[in-house]
Design brief:
By secondary structure, the protein is of the alpha+beta class. The protein has 2 domains: about 10-95 and about 195-205, Ribosomal Protein S4 Delta 41, Chain A, domain 1, CATH 1.10.1050; about 105-185, Structural Genomics Hypothetical 15.5 Kd Protein In mrcA-pckA Intergenic Region, Chain A, CATH 3.10.290. Helices cover about 40% and strands about 10% of the residues. The chain has 9 helices and 5 strands; from the N terminus they run αααααααβββαββα. The protein has helices spanning about 10-15, 30-35, 55-70, 70-85, 90-100, 100-105, 115-120, 155-165, 200-205; strands at about 125-130, 130-135, 145-150, 175, 180-185. Strands 2-1-3-5-4 form a 5-stranded antiparallel sheet, covered by helices on one side.
Length: about 210
């Protein structure tokens, strides 16, 4: 399975903003964006050329891919799926990305970052609709329940997470049961319920060229 293996903080510096890819580190003075607020590479501090319209659209697409941790081939499939659905393509794309298994585990507070959530899912710690799943791209629908598997509840990681679960605030379209180590998808998220700082219309324009 293909995955991004380079330094994630380089992605934030390339975009010139925090994408919150490293969990708690992003909120500390150790965040590279705070220490080196310029693009990576030997020419990072040099004079920057004006970015073309295509470049702006490409950068926004790359930003969205980086935030959700999806590589090009799978991201393109998500976009094609969004195009086939009724409604606004950009919002459909965000809904698809938000209802991925790895993102839901992150949104429910079981992981500090989407990368960590993806690893937990890959290791088979969660069930979706009562069935164990180790596929980060698995999609949940309204009414579906995500639960920490019986065999994982006693793991040291989840024992450390349990005390902080009651303090977690989840999006309105999700519900969380800290005591039962489970969460439910209440509805498909609307655009105003998704706090991801992206311009989905630019992504649509990029693929519509």
């Amino acid at each position: 399975m293909a995955r991004y293996t380079d330094a994630r903080c380089r992605l934030c510096r390339r975009q010139g903003m925090k994408l919150f890819l490293k969990g708690d580190k992003c909120f500390t003075p150790k965040c590279p964006v705070e220490r080196r607020p310029y693009p990576p590479g030997m020419h990072g501090q040099g004079r920057r050329r004006k970015v073309s319209e295509y470049g702006v659209q490409l950068r926004e697409k790359q930003k969205m891919k980086s935030i959700y941790g999806v590589l090009e081939r799978q991201f393109r499939k998500h976009f094609e799926d969004a195009e086939r659905r009724p409604g606004i393509t950009g919002e459909n794309l965000l809904q698809i990305l938000e209802t991925r298994m790895d993102n839901l585990v992150y949104r429910m507070g079981w992981a500090a970052s989407r990368a960590e959530a993806r690893q937990l899912v890959r290791h088979g710690h969660f069930t979706l609709k009562g069935r164990k799943t180790d596929i980060p791209s698995a999609h949940a629908r309204p009414g579906d329940v995500i639960t920490v598997g019986e065999g994982s509840r006693g793991a040291e990681y989840f024992q450390m997470v349990i005390p902080s679960m009651a303090k977690k605030s989840v999006p309105r379209w999700l519900s969380l049961d800290p005591d039962g180590l489970s969460g439910r998808v209440l509805a498909a998220p609307t655009r105003d319920e998704i706090d991801t700082n992206v311009s989905e219309q630019l992504v649509v324009e990029f693929y519509s060229r």
